[in-house]
Design a protein that fits this description.
By secondary structure, the protein is of the alpha+beta class. Helix content is 56%, strand content 15%. The longest helix has 15 residues. The protein is elongated and about 70 Å long.
């Protein structure tokens, strides 16, 4: 069965959000599929279940207790006061790179304890 792809795309561009939602539901029911499943697989990048070997710890915000955040960064990194302050003031900044998951979680906990916002990459 041949169909005109360009014609279908043109029709989709003109459809309302409600119409598109109804179309997705109808396709899911007709073919017994879920529109969300392919997205999850694509987001996983084909490495589903593969654990990361190392993490980068990034401070995204210093929080209300900036001085305590600077002290924590100094303790974690061994940096001097000026460098630690620059790291905190320049957030988002990488505090430590290539650490194990346990160490990354420990660092995150120490920084969050003083009110900083931290992400692991």
């Amino acid at each position: 069965m041949a169909f005109d792809k360009d014609s279908i795309i043109a029709s989709l561009k003109e459809a309302s959000i409600s119409d598109l939602n109804d179309l997705v539901k109808a396709i899911e029911e007709e073919f017994d599929v879920s529109a969300a499943a392919p997205v999850a697989v694509a987001a996983a990048g084909g490495d589903a279940g593969a654990a990361k070997d190392s993490y980068d710890v990034e401070i995204t915000e210093s929080g209300d207790q900036k001085v305590k955040a600077i002290k924590a960064v100094r303790e974690i990194t061994g940096l001097g006061l000026k460098d630690a302050k620059g790291l905190v003031d320049g957030a988002p900044s990488i505090v430590k790179e290539g650490v194990s998951e346990d160490e990354a979680n420990d660092i995150k906990a120490k920084l969050e304890e003083v009110g900083a916002t931290v992400t692991l990459k």
